Amino acid sequence: MSTVRNNHSLTPLTNGRILVAGGESGGWGVCNTLSTAQRYDPVTGKWLIAASMNVARSLHTATPLRDGKVLVVGGVAREPDCYISPALRSAELYNYPRPATAP
């Protein structure tokens, strides 16, 4: 994985890969909320950079759908100083239309 993150989602995809999306990066007391995503291919053991989400979010849910898309709901978008923000009242249908690339 090219970005160390926490409070992200891990979602199994219909093609056998795993989607890692959102979360936070930074050291203790630093909360940079992420919109970036990566896919892990367990066959090759490689991480691929995937399309970013529209909204940076952490502590969200990500549900795989039968058509291969992922429904991403809620979460928070914390300020860099880690103050808790109100819950996000949004959802997005995550699709990875462009081919993933190696980091």
UniProtKB/TrEMBL annotation:
It comes from the Bacteria. Transmembrane segments: none annotated. InterPro entries: Gal_Oxidase_central_sf, Kelch-typ_b-propeller, Kelch_1. SUPFAM superfamilies: Kelch motif. SMART domains: Kelch. It holds the Pfam family Kelch_1. This is Galactose oxidase.
